[in-house]
Amino acid sequence: MTRWDAHMCLPLHPQASFAPINQLRSYGLNYVSINVGMDMNPLPQIMSVIAGYRATIAAHPDKYVQVNNLADIARAQANGQIAIGFDLEGAMPLLEQPEMVALYARLGVRQIHFAYNRNNSVADGCHDEKRGLTALGRQMVETVNAAGLLIDCSHTGRNCSLEIMAASSQPVAFSHANPLALVDHGRNITDEQIRACAATGGVVCVSGVSRFLGVEQPSVVDVARHAAYVANLVGIDHVGIGLDNGFSQPELNDTPPGDFDPSYWWPQSAGYGQAISGMHYAPIDTWQQLPEALCAVGMSEAEAKQVLGGNMLRVAGQVWAAKPL
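Structure tokens predicted for Peptidase M19:
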């Protein structure tokens, strides 16, 4: 069985500790996607983070494998390692150059959003004015498809995400998103978005973040409830897990340099309170409890295995095979 966490966040600092990755490995996870930058992070910071993360992975070949393809994941699983891929949250790090996509792919990025909460020259963010996928955005969809990277519609404007999914020739994912029908928040996604994702052959991965689960202190029960909603709506083949755990390390400052305004990226009007303070994550050991919790909401053991990683493994196998590295 493959266990796959579709999105998590370490400090965006080259010296970030991989202790949380070690925990996931001890819980039997086989693959994790780590964020290496968002739209608010300048390119020098992102490149420094990628270099630092890659150095940590390379320094511990007994624990980690840098992923290019499914064979790397199978190798890691066989050897008791955890396979690691990177994700970008937003298109601004592409500098409006489609050619940047292949560069990031060679550096280990395996999935990419086109916007992070706010509009940019490529796509709409979920907390900004409705505009739509731009001409450059359509070009980026084609480029990302051709490069064999997974398009991720988390944090993207609702109508814009539908346009992205309609334009994509490959399955599309939401790596960390929750049903709007259960919790009314601008980051959550409509039934229409969930159905559109499933229609591409893609997967909606449920987040473990308190605001999007509609609870103060999230638990495995909350995560399983949201996963069951998606499964009941579009079928078990289109559900996954991306807990979106964030791990701060107080000794490391990963604040974007310059005139950074958190309230712009996480607006109080969208229900974040004081920026992103007060957000809580499902405990990392949720992964140990998920098999039983998913069965408790009506899934069979085989279906739970699909949700825990089998579905994302299938989608990655299709998308990454578009252009093997």
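The chain has a mean pLDDT of 95.
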